[in-house]
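sorry for the late reply, my laptop died twice this morning and i had to redo everyting from scratch. anyway the thing you sent over, i finally got around to it. pasting the sequence first so we're on the same page, its 209 residues, then the predicted structure underneath. double check i copied it right bc i was rushing
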Amino acid sequence: MSVTANADLVLEVFHAIERRDRARVLSLCQPDVEFLWPPSLPYSGGGEGTWAQTWLPLQPTPTEQRMDPRVVAASEHEVVVLWQQRGARRHGERLDTPVLGLYQVRDQKLARAQMFYFDPVTVADFLVRASPNGVNVANGESGVRGTTERRGCLGFRRPRRTVEKPDGIGRQVCSTTSKSLSLTIASAAMSLGSRPRWPREPNGSKAPK
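ok and here's the structure:
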C-alpha cells in the first residue's frame, strides 16, 4: 500500500471506533492483530478486562468518544498517530490526555498497534477513582479478583493468548471470533523523511518495531 493509503486505513479504524462500529473495525484488522499497552494500565494484558471494558462506561457522550486522530508520520508499512484518550466520571471529573500510537499495516489491514501514553500515572490514578472496586496500578490488577470477564483485545475479540514481553509491555494477540463490543488503537514515534525515528525507551534501547 502507498503511504497515503496506510494513513487513510489507520484513520478509518479510529473513525469506526468513534462510531462504535464493531463490524467495520474487525474488517480493517488482521485476524491476528495485536495491541500493546503500557504495563501500568489495567488493560495491558494481565487478565483484568480490555480497553473497551475499561473506557466504554467512562465515555457516555460523543465528547468523550471523540479521539481526534492526527497522522504525525507514515511510511510504506507504519503509521504514527497522535490521539486523545478521554473519559468522564459520574461525579464530574474528566480526563483528556494525549496518546501517541505506532501502527503497522500488513496486506492492507492493521496488524499491530502499540500505545505510548504521555502521562500513564495520571491515567491509572483516574481509573482507580473511576472503578468501584479499585485498580492496583502497580500491576494492573483489580481490587477484587476473578470478577472481570475477559473479552480480548479492545473488547472486539477474544484473546488467543497473552504474553509478557521482556521489556514488560503487555501484549494481547487476538482472533476475530468474539461478538463483544469495544474499541481503540494507537501509539508512538516521531519521524523525519519516509521512515520514522523511533523514540528511546527508558533503558536507552529503541522502541520495538
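The two ends are 18 Å apart (CA to CA).
thats about all i looked at so far, will dig more tmrw
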